[in-house]
Amino acid sequence: QVQLVESGGGLVQPGGSLRLSCAASGSISRINKMGWYRQVPGKQRELVADIIRGGSTNYAVSVKGRFTISGDNAKKMVYLEMNSLKPEDTAVYYCNIQCVSRQYWGQGTQVTVSS
């Protein structure tokens, strides 16, 4: 059984930083893409950033230049370094791993940016 566990969320002041981590356990076939999504109540889940197997990254416009995604396919780990956080970054952040035939989601970690 595959499980993704996120950590690193919390409360931070505007302008602050957080680092999210996601650890996957269980048997996972070839990982094609790893990413982070976020969701606020009443809105659809949106892509924050992802990284494909070759290392190319993709970011939402709203976080480009402030967030950095990294990953280790062999260790089944993915990270999100978040700097210059803004109140509008407040959301539940979800880890996502996509393989050839299916994808997996974590349970989410709350990030709150507030003074």
Explain how this protein is built.
The model has no long low-confidence stretch (mean pLDDT 95). The chain is mainly beta and 115 residues long. It has no helices and eleven strands. Strands 2, 4, 5, 6, 9, 10 and 11 form a seven-stranded mixed beta sheet that branches. It has a four-stranded antiparallel beta sheet with strand order 1-3-8-7, with no helix packed on it.
Q: Characteristics of this structure?
A:
about 120 residues, mainly beta, 7-stranded mixed beta sheet, 4-stranded antiparallel beta sheet, 11 strands
Largest sheet: 7 strands, mixed
Number of helices: 0
What is the β-strand count? 11
Approximate shape:
globular
Oligomer: single chain
In summary, what is this structure?
With 115 residues, the protein is mainly β. It has strands spanning 3-7, 10-12, 18-25, 31-39, 46-52, 57-59, 67-72, 77-82, 91-99, 103-105, 109-113.
List the helices and strands and how they pair.
Layout: E1 3-7, E2 10-12, E3 18-25, E4 31-39, E5 46-52, E6 57-59, E7 67-72, E8 77-82, E9 91-99, E10 103-105, E11 109-113
